[in-house]
Amino acid sequence: MESKPSELSTFSTKTHTDTSSKFLEQTKSHRTFLLPFISFLHQQIQISPFEAYISGSGILTNSLQMEEDGAVTLYSGSAITDTKKNPFSIKVGIAQMLRGGAIAEVTIVDQAKIAESAGACCIVVSDPKGPGISRMPDPSLIKEIKQAVSIPVMAKFRVGHFVEAQILEAIGVNYIDENEILALADEDNFVNKHNFRAPFVCGCRDLGEALRRVREGAAMIRTQGDLLGTGDIVETVRNVRKVMGDIRILSNMDEDEVFTFSKKIAAPYDIVAQTKQMGRLPVVHFASGGIVTPADAALMMQLGCDGVFVGSDVFNCSDPYKNVRAIVQAVRNYNDPHILAAASSGLEEAMGGLNVNENRVERFVNAETY
């Protein structure tokens, strides 16, 4: 006598099938972003390709679950152009893959290969510095670098220049950086990042600016310091401390005070309220500018950042691999002074010049100063 499947087992099978179909449908346009991360896990952390695939898929599954639970998705349906094509929580989950890593800025293929071999979690391609207007990098250079490395590739474009962003997404970059260091294309408007599949990175100098960029669709925030490439970290420290300090103030506020605080920093109330609830920025938070030594990188991590950007100046030495590797080790072991001491030993002078001038030196004239 043939046994019939129970209603419970039939229901479980159907539910599993529906869930799998939904996952495949929602992640179809985002699976390409997982491939560099899976390769990175396999090569740098030395786990099997299968385990790397499971890890990458797990992050994507968790981000989808957070979207359904409302834990990460910050926007109503009216704010996103197409919720099925561009679920914001998936972009946030993809950006989470870079936490605890160092992102190296490169201008040529050889630098990209060095950064990958040194353990960088991602590389950002920028236009070689020169006279004139700074724009997005040459697409042919980006394609060449993508073929040469297996880690994720990020590329910069000018603020407000949505056509450059469209080009970068079309050639398959993994992350897009709307970078204020380049020449501005639009002085008043940033790109609506919800119209794109790729996760966006945006810079900030304070909490209000960071949360406004998140409202526009940024999946990662980069607190920016030194813009001139002088190796001076003081401005980066100032801006990171300001962001973290405002978050601490916000976390200790009464609910009634959040409305006034959101007006003060000119940020959307719902994202300010979520930042208060989480006790941190609702997206990945990196630091950039003036980070040229392992100690600089560890300082940013201990101040509360999730990772660091390293400028292309780190390659201007006789042994760039050693410099980049030391910074990567410092980010991974930022709380261990013994490892930091070893990583900092034997490095060439990272950047010449002083970062203290007479105006910043406090003069202790008399005992009352103390």
Automatic annotation (TrEMBL):
Presence of keyword Nucleus: no
Domain PdxS/SNZ N-terminal: 88-287
Pfam families assigned: SOR_SNZ
PROSITE patterns the record matches: PDXS_SNZ_2
UniProt-listed GO biological process terms: amino acid metabolic process; pyridoxal phosphate biosynthetic process; pyridoxine biosynthetic process
Cellular component GO terms, alphabetical: cytosol
InterPro entries named among the record's database cross-references: Aldolase_TIM, PdxS/SNZ, PdxS/SNZ_N, RibuloseP-bd_barrel
UniProt KW Oxidoreductase keyword: no
Record GO terms (molecular function): amine-lyase activity; protein heterodimerization activity
Keyword terms of this UniProt record: Pyridoxal phosphate
The family this protein is said to belong to: Belongs to the PdxS/SNZ family.
Protein name: PdxS/SNZ N-terminal domain-containing protein
Species of the source: Anisodus tanguticus
UniProt lineage: Eukaryota, Viridiplantae, Streptophyta, Embryophyta, Tracheophyta
